[in-house]
């Protein structure tokens, strides 16, 4: 199934260099993706971006959206794919670009997809990865693992481009997932409830929340399902307040 690239955005979290944004714009347009979102600041040198993008991708630069907050940025997306080169138990589970590409192509039929990339020097931290439904890591030689930002963007976008020519889920069977803003509200409500009943360690409440996030991400929650879960949380809170009155 051909990916609906109009529903796919490349989200750059606090990129350090304007030239790298230009290179990303060129790589994205090569693969038919025209939407780029930059988180952090809008104060990048346009000339430096144009030098690396070439004039053929100037329209992609013109359409870039800028946001200050990553939560605000991702709130309108239904499915968020983070990228990282740093492995660790608290950062995965990980999938390859090829494994992620077909799902991205399928979900793009009815959902807004964010491909999230971190700063060139540090990549995405755990706080950003926890907002993601899936985390991609790009296999490289152990002798030299470093990729620059535009290379990483090109590899993931290329795999989506190739996956678009393969058979996938019929468009009518593709689910419309809940927005990130909806699921983040649900996670906060669950976290508050579990804290009140003593299930979460107040010193490290994210320890169990990470597993819950992974569980629900695998499920692919719909808006109605999020509302049901939030309703259950509200009822449990009401019961806890009134059971001894």
Keywords, separated by commas or semicolons:
245 residues; Helicase, Ruva Protein, domain 3; elongated; single chain; seven-stranded parallel sheet; Alpha/beta knot; 10 helices
**Count of discrete alpha- or pi-helical segments spanning 4 or more residues:** 10
Placed side by side, the strands forming the largest sheet appear as 3-2-1-6-4-7-5
Helical residues, percent: 40-55%
CATH class wording of the largest domain: Alpha Beta
* Overall number of structural domains: 2
Low-confidence runs: none
Distance between the termini: 57 Å
For the sheet with most strands, the description reads: 7 strands, parallel
By CATH, the topology of the largest domain is Alpha/beta knot
Beta-strand share of residues = 5-15%
Order of helices and strands: EHEHHEHEEHEHEHHHH
What is the CATH superfamily of the largest domain?
SPOUT methyltransferase, trefoil knot domain
Give the structural class.
alpha/beta
**CATH architecture descriptor text of the largest domain:** 3-Layer(aba) Sandwich
Rounded mean pLDDT is 88
Question: Rough shape?
Answer: elongated
Q: Report the count of strand segments.
A: 7
The Cα radius of gyration reads 19 Å
